[in-house]
Amino acid sequence: MGGLKPHRFAAFLLLAAGLLLAGCKKPLSNELIVGMELAYPPFEMTDAQGKPAGVSVDLAHALGEYLHRPVRIENLPFDGLIPSLKTGKIDLILSSMTATEERARTIAFSEPYLRTGLCLLVGKGSEIQSISEVDRPGRTIVVKQGTTGHTYAAAHLKAPQVRVLDQENSCVLEVVQGKADAFIYDQISTFKHWQKNQETTRAILQPFQEEAWAIGVRKENDELRGQFNAFIRDYRTRGGFEELGDRWLKEQKTAFRERGIPFLF
After folding, report:
1. This model's pTM is above 0.85
2. Residue 175 DSSP one-character state
3. Could you report the per-residue pLDDT of 222-240, keeping only the tens digit for each?
């Protein structure tokens, strides 16, 4: 009966062993899967080549380097991030998410890495100066679905009509076209939208509700949460957040400083 010659048989065994090891090897088993909605520049967005970019993307990769784990970004709708985390589709949420009491009932959060607040984008000719002047009959307010602006309006605004829209830009357009009196959103985004629409809008940047952004993680994953907290403290000590601000938000930092409003990081 024919067979392989000894040297060929040895080579065959080496090849088979290599294939077996390749089949068993899981090069991505240590992968850190980060969920974010890439529709919130300059924090989460895509670049000209369609690749993830922005403050949160850089922060995610810095976290991966700190943990010695490769990073994969999963682009998901904002209101799908928590369900995806709970079902194990992603390992963490890093998507400009405010750590609220309601969200903390279902997921855990790291220490805050950024502090911001809700403010208002109003029409340029509007007499509105504060949130108290928004809560009046006859007003129309727009909010983006699933955001803390949406939550705030539902809990605190009784008199105006509140319209809930899916897209941030749709909310801005309502104010630009005079169809809504105000858009409730975060400071950085409000400043950005005012910059693009200075002839038709006005930004009231002083926050009426302060908030903190944090990394979301499954409740049972205390070890990973501890690693995130250690990273945040280390990154801040090394000046990482200051560098992120200079890289992506330099103009905003200057504008906030001129207005006497504390900056985010």
Report:
1. no
2. H
3. 999 999 999 999 999 999 9
